[in-house]
Amino acid sequence: MNAADSEWLSRSLIARGFVPAERQDDATIQILNTCSVRDKPEQKVYSEIGRIRSVTGNSPDVLVCVGGCVAQQMGEKLFKRFSQVRLVFGTDGIASAPDAVARLVEEKRLRMSLIDFADQFEERDFALDERVSPVAYVNIMQGCNNFCAYCIVPYVRGRQKSRGADAIIAECVALLARGAKEITLLGQNVNAYGQDLGAPSGARSAFGDLLYRVAALPGLVRLRFVTPHPKDMEPDMAQAFADLSVLAPRLHLPLQSGSDEILRRMGRKYDTARFLELTDALRAARPDMLFSTDIIVGFPGETEAQFQETLAFMARVGFASSFSFAYSDRPGTRASLLGDKLDKKTKFDRLSRLQAWQYAFARNILDSMNGRTVTVLLEGEAESKDPVPGAKYWQGREEGGLSVIVRMTKDAPSGGWLGEVVPVLVTGASMHGLKGELV
């Protein structure tokens, strides 16, 4: 979501006449769009502001803007800590950020804070270029109502606010008209979409209705969504994967722990039996379905036996990939007040073991793809680590979301390769993806 917001902010500033710097250190406007879901990225924000200050000599002619979750969390404290910071904007303030930047450039002594939460989703100009990337992202909601014990998101992104379905469809239509082929619908709790707008009129959930509407748009090749919450997976989701051929067979479904006791203490509102029921139903609908997930190791009070439950459950589901982290306290959350905190050595030992298992399992999936023909949406030119002399290479993803480096064995069509959907024979695997050649 931050990446999509940053792309929009850049387009919006360019539309106002601002020019991107070729090098970051040459820019007189530096905008940091931040994350505070874990402690490490938050600390990187402070380090980066310090680096900018050292490079620019703390010049008052350099405007530093901090947006996103750290801005929402720290607010005007950033003004006191860093003199070059003259704009802080939260997740609901980004729609006003381009106008604020333009004003701050003219009024050198002014500082502005845009950190109030809005009562509803704030629409903004799409600010689309004439041609966009073949892979596009569309926000459909903001915020979260779940208040999981470890999570800071509801405090820095606010309560759930769903966007109007017609506005979502209008943006998707505009993207497809400009060259998009794949659309990913975004939300902190994306499948809870519409729960704050009232009950849907039909048998499907509001999110289910939206999926069917987007899937029917002409020109759409693939549809994805991220990130769903297991507790909000309605029965119509499996049916949607069975009905909608454009709905890609890859789903990121955060597990967080394979221990029912830890899940209860996290406040996740599901257990492993329910999670397994979901994945089994989705695989029955789409046998080629691949799952990825999020895992937190070292939650307060987690025992070695409970960690082993997580490893066993990950193997039972068979996740193609996972984002795994050692637990860290986030200010204001219930988990930060719990006792039984694990020491750093224990947490990172468990994290290392989990990631070693995941690497081996993912490698087996990649190796099993050798010799298959997959369908790849080409996203841009690429380099190969072992190139054939004179060959050209492109990068894209197949339906299951696996990255593929493609050796081009044919001349490009008249419109070029960008956005083309092509058959590729897989000839091998790299550390994080596949390699192949155009069929």
Calculate the terminal CA-CA distance, rounded to whole Å.
Answer: 35 Å
Q: How many domain units?
A: 3
Structural class: alpha/beta
Percentage of β-strand residues: 15-25%
The top-level CATH class of the largest domain is Alpha Beta
Order of helices and strands: HEHEHHEHEEEHEHEHEHEHHEHEHEEEEE
How many strands, which pairing sense, and closed or not: the largest β-sheet? 5 strands, mixed, barrel
Q: How many extended strands?
A: 17
Low-confidence stretches: none
- Helix content, binned percent: 25-40%
CATH architecture descriptor name of the largest domain: Alpha-Beta Horseshoe
Q: Say which CATH homologous superfamily of the largest domain is assigned.
A: tm_1862 like domain
Mean pLDDT: 94
Write down the CATH topology of the largest domain.
pyruvate-formate lyase- activating enzyme
How would the blueprint of this fold be written?
Elements: H1 2-15, E1 29-34, H2 39-56, E2 63-68, H3 69-74, H4 77-81, E3 85-89, H5 97-106, E4 112-114, E5 135-139, E6 141-142, H6 153-157, E7 161-162, H7 165-177, E8 182-186, H8 206-215, E9 222-226, H9 236-243, E10 250-252, H10 260-266, H11 272-285, E11 290-297, H12 304-317, E12 321-326, H13 344-368, E13 373-382, E14 392-398, E15 403-408, E16 421-429, E17 434-438
Parallel strand pairs: 1-2, 2-3, 3-4, 5-8, 8-9, 10-11, 11-12, 15-17
Antiparallel strand pairs: 6-7, 13-14, 13-16, 14-15, 16-17
Helix pairs in contact: 9-11
